[in-house]
Amino acid sequence: MSGAHSSDSRRSEASAFLTGAEADVAEAIADMYGNLGNRPGFDAHLHADVTVWESADPRLLRGLGQLDELRGPAPAPDAARHKGPAPFVAPTEVVVDVWDDTAVARYVLVVDYADDPEAREHVRVTDVLRLIDEQWIIVHHHAQDLAA
After folding, report:
1. pTM of the prediction?
2. Which one, 40, 53, 90, 135, has least CB within 10 Å?
3. Half-sphere exposure of 86 (CA within 13 A, CB side)
């Protein structure tokens, strides 16, 4: 896959078989990944006190401050994160359940690099979201790298 996909195509792919609030949650997640490389845009989908389990860190990360420790400094807006083109990142196999103002989303995140098709990565993700001020916000994120 190339990096030419738009965030609109990510949203439509993520929520193709979902309706109502479930589709809204899937679209919020797709929009978050559409902002990869834009830390403020990405973080707008995360609660300030988000808890995070990531494969790269054995700790339960608490809040954006600890998440930033793992991520490192935000790149300058014009700086390339990778030597090659930006990766195409898309949630697939999305399953969402919603109960009032709480939702759980499960999906496989696929990461493709246009300059290295063999470097495809898969990450199993579970997100817990709350509806806050009419926006679905991730309050817990659990990601596990899957073997190639």
Report:
1. 0.82
2. 40
3. 18
Q: Are 113 and 121 in contact (CB under 8 A)?
A: no
Look up residue 112 and give its two tokens: 């493709």
**DSSP H or E stretch at residue 122:** strand 121-132
Contact 13, 92 (CB under 8 A): yes
Residue 31 lies in a domain: yes
Q: Write out pLDDT tens, residues 19-56.
A: 999 999 999 999 999 998 899 999 999 999 999 999 88
User: Do residues 15 and 34 make contact, with C-beta atoms less than 8 angstroms apart?
Assistant: no
Q: In what order do the strands lie in the sheet with 88-99?
A: 57-62, 46-54, 135-145, 121-132, 102-112, 88-99
Say which CATH number the domain at 85 has.
3.10.450.50
Return the closest-CA partner of residue 26 out of 17, 14, 40: 14
